[in-house]
Hints:
311 residues, mainly beta, disordered N terminus
Amino acid sequence: MLLTQNQPGFAAGFDGAIKNNALALNAAGTVAAVSNSEESAVIVYDVAKGTVLRRLDGFVTPRNIVFAPDGARFYVSDSGTGRITVYETGTGKEAGVLAAGPGAFGTVLSADGTKLYVNNEAASTLTVFDTKTMLAVAVIPGFAQPRQGVKLSPDGKTVFVTNFLGDKITLVDTATNKITSEIAGFDKLRAISITKDGKTLFAANSGRNTVSVVDVAARKVTSEVAVGKDPYGAALTPDGRFVYSGNLKDNSLSVIDTDTLKVVATVTGLNEPRQAIAFSSDNAHAYVLNRDLSVAVVDRAKNAVVSTMKP
């Protein structure tokens, strides 16, 4: 039986008051799925038309969304039910459930889509699922409140897991499912992203209003870029030229040039942007989730919101 937040036996340490949001695009960039942990629904948008395709109800605290590499399915984690629900993109029908346990939070898929890595904030573990059988093949302990931040290295050999407690990133070897090292020096660590060459990692520090620049090989923070108030996002553009930080308290985006490590633009007109930021494959637009589950479409050349998809 899966427990919910108000049932006896629910994992101690799980904090249902933790807030986050998620936005994922399919590989073709035609469908966007969004969620907010304070809302019980996931909204699926037709990106070209800017309209709602469907609404998926019945969640307690939806946390993260990822599409399969071919875009045919997407996975929604719910920390309240402990489920990762799989949906068919074309029909919205449920295609399966992975039982991850209460506290299931951040998720990331392997490049071939055969493995799903799930942070469990309540148990402080990382669970590895086989997406074909939908069964757990490994449960890795040793974390401290791993939340939404979890990424795979471009070569697929390392999982980077953020720990909100202790403000550190833990590195896991995907071949052995063992923790190999840690990177410290953050402050209220939020979203992370990794460059395509795997050499540099960017991490949002909502505690000191910066984005950290990390030398992955050296396992250390090498510099920090001051951004807006309460940054959650650290999203790299597809070409790796810019990092976008969603600044919750400023209702803005800070755009960082990855060559100069300076903020080159600020985008306004948003509503509580967090880490839910994605980009069109042609680099022309950024999609940013607002508090009300609407999606702001940002023209990257103009650094301005040009339209909004509304639920």
